[in-house]
Amino acid sequence: MTFSLGIVGAGQFSGQFATLFQAHPGVREVHVTDLLPERAERLAAERGLAGTFPSYEAMLESPAVDAVAVFTQRWTHGPLVLRALNAGKHVYSAVPMAVTTEEIAAIVEAVRATGLTYMMGETSHYHPATVHARDRIARGAFGRVFYAEGDYVHDMDLGFYDAYRYSGGADWKATASYPPLLYPTHSVGGVLGAWRTHAVSVSAIGVRDERGDGVFDRSVSQFDNDVSNATALFEVAGGGSFRTNEFRRVGYPSHIRESRFRFFGTEASMEQLATVALWQDKNGVEDISELLEPRRTPTPGDPSSAHVAPALRAAFTSGAAPVHDRSRLPGEFDGLPNGHEGSHHFLADDFVTAVTTRTQPPVNAWVAARYTLPGVIAHESARQGGVRLEIPDFGDAPGV
Q: Which terminus of the chain, N or C, has less C-beta within 10 A?
């Protein structure tokens, strides 16, 4: 069984996934649409795609498209996903799932009601540290895990200014103020992707920005936001806690590693920084950096990253780490660009596999809600000065 795919948004991230989806033996053909038709036409020409659609509406109405992959600006995902599900299309969505509790609940219900496949493309679920911690937790190596940390530390100066200018046009500063805690999945997903639990409450604190350049300025911000750095402390089901940082003004080499994780158990712990990772128990310390380090495989001249801001290109050129099991991937992916710590190949394959086998993908709607909703509630906590708030939960995916 194969299916046809329509890509929504021909921006900086969709090009590489267009390459992967088109190469996958489970995908028959790939189309694209964008609010700026010239971008869609350029992507289709560069990647040899099947064609373009003049609008999202036209794509959803077409019987020639079985599924859509949403690569639009982050606050637009929820409504676009719901329209696709209601039109009978399977959906792959870039992160975050949505930006409100109501949107998230509506997506979960739409997936339940339609039986269609939904997958959120959370890279940290496949992060080498997450993969390794998930395996060791499953084998009981940590003992009882009681605390974890996940950071998404990506300074605005390292690529985000260029990215927002590219996607936001003349009013880019209004959207560059996007609240950090509403983009939580690169930190939360890496923790919960290994530690099989979910957040039940949160207290968060935000730090007001002081750069004074019109970004994170409430008088300019589309989101009424002046916070550029935020920290959240979550309570988890079954006992324990985890802390996340979402930093956009930080002296840290985010071009080397954007997301990093730590896990603490009663018998062992694991810690990761920008260039080193350690496994520790009561007897000593083991350097596991090599095990978690993706083999960098730059692809000079590759058109799928030609329009990516230079400071972001490292996210598109990493290969796989030794902890990744590439034996499950299609051979057609060998030698193709990978990215975000070796996650892109697994993201594309898991979506295609879920659609073609009608099984739940790893980051299905229910898991995506658990990766996204904690940040939505944390954002509200920070706006209320750190008050502790309960986090709703939609449970596990049916049949999982």
A: N
Of 156, 199, 206, 211, give the one whose Cα is nearest residue 181: 206
CB atoms within 10 A of CB 388: 12
Residues 96, 166, single domain; the answer is no
Structure tokens given for 223: 């989101």
What domain range includes position 68? 3-122
The span from the CA of 151 to the CA of 98, in Å, is 20
d(CA 117, CA 199): 24
Tens-digit pLDDT string for the chain (400 aa): 899 999 999 987 899 999 999 999 999 999 999 999 999 999 999 999 999 999 999 999 999 999 999 999 999 999 999 999 999 999 999 999 999 999 999 999 999 999 999 999 999 999 999 999 999 999 999 999 999 999 999 999 999 999 999 888 899 999 999 999 999 999 999 999 999 999 999 999 999 999 999 999 999 999 999 999 999 999 999 999 999 999 999 999 999 999 999 999 999 999 999 999 999 999 999 999 999 999 865 554 454 455 555 545 455 556 899 999 999 999 999 999 999 999 999 999 999 999 999 999 999 999 999 999 999 999 999 999 999 999 999 999 998 7
Q: How many domains does the chain divide into?
A: 2
> What is the C-alpha to C-alpha distance for residues 369 and 95, in angstroms, rounded to an integer?
11
Q: Give the span between the Cα atoms of 197 and 187, in whole angstroms.
A: 15
Residue 348 lies in a domain: no
Residue among 241, 174, 166 at smallest CA distance from 203: 241
> Are 267 and 225 in a shared domain?
yes
Residues 81 and 216 placed together within one structural domain of the fold = no
Beta strand ranges found along the chain (DSSP E): 3-8, 27-33, 51-52, 67-70, 90-93, 118-120, 145-153, 199-208, 227-236, 241-247, 259-265, 268-272, 277-281, 285-287, 389-390
The model carries a pTM of 0.95
My answer on whether 142 and 186 are in the same domain is: yes
